[in-house]
Design a protein that fits this description.
By secondary structure, the chain is of the alpha/beta class. Helix content is 32%, strand content 26%. It has one domain (4-200): Rossmann fold (3-Layer(aba) Sandwich), CATH 3.40.50.
């Protein structure tokens, strides 16, 4: 991937302004996908995104893809004409089920291949990896695979100690602990850690 993948620990639209400004200032239009909050308050995330965009002087377009049937060619065309996409929301498993093997996921992959920026925060960031961490039991599941062979544990400061230790013990890939306000970045230049990110194991070259 010639673009940039930014996996944030949490706090979308509130805790990462400096990083968001650095990553997105020259990206052009940013598509915001609140897919992983489909069963919560996706509109509240969009409202926060609009305030964030005004604060950082970004051009955003919310894309309300909340079900698998909506992840179609029409949604893909919106991403195909954007310079960046941001995925937010708290259900990584729902994001995976909506996007896997869809035209929209293919468009997000094309965005990365043509040098665009893909940002995901919290559970949405975990879902973009393969393996994906499962907060419910501290184990791992099949993820979307935009980043393969590395797992992230987001909002790690909220994980119970026993589940966190179990996740570290079960891992057969490098694992990066990402508290809110931190990030793991993968770009053509390599890896970058932001904030209090902690790497367990060696990140691949």
């Amino acid at each position: 991937m010639s673009g940039t993948l930014v996996l944030q620990g949490g706090g979308p639209f509130t805790a990462n302004d400096d990083l968001d400004s650095r990553m997105l200032a020259s990206a052009g239009r940013v598509v915001v996908l609140p897919t992983a909050d489909a069963f919560e308050q996706p509109q509240a995330l969009v409202d926060s995104a609009e305030q964030w965009a005004a604060r950082l002087h970004l051009d955003i377009e919310p894309l309300m893809v909340l079900t698998r049937g909506q992840a179609d060619d029409a949604a893909a065309s919106v991403v195909d004409s954007a310079g960046a996409v941001m995925l937010v929301g708290d259900s990584g498993s729902h994001l995976r089920s909506v996007l896997k093997d869809t035209a929209l996921l293919a468009a997000i992959e094309r965005l990365g291949e043509r040098g665009g920026v893909i940002v995901a925060a919290g559970a949405s960031a975990s879902a973009l990896c393969d393996p994906m961490t499962d907060r419910r039991g501290g184990a791992f599941a099949l993820g979307l695979g935009l980043l393969r062979g590395v797992a992230v544990i987001t909002e790690v400061e909220t994980w119970p100690t026993d589940k966190l230790e179990r996740a570290h013990g079960l891992a057969n890939t490098p694992v990066v602990d990402l508290p809110t306000g931190s990030a793991l970045i993968r770009s053509a230049q390599g890896w970058e850690l932001v904030g209090d990110a902690v790497v367990h194991g060696a990140l691949p070259a």
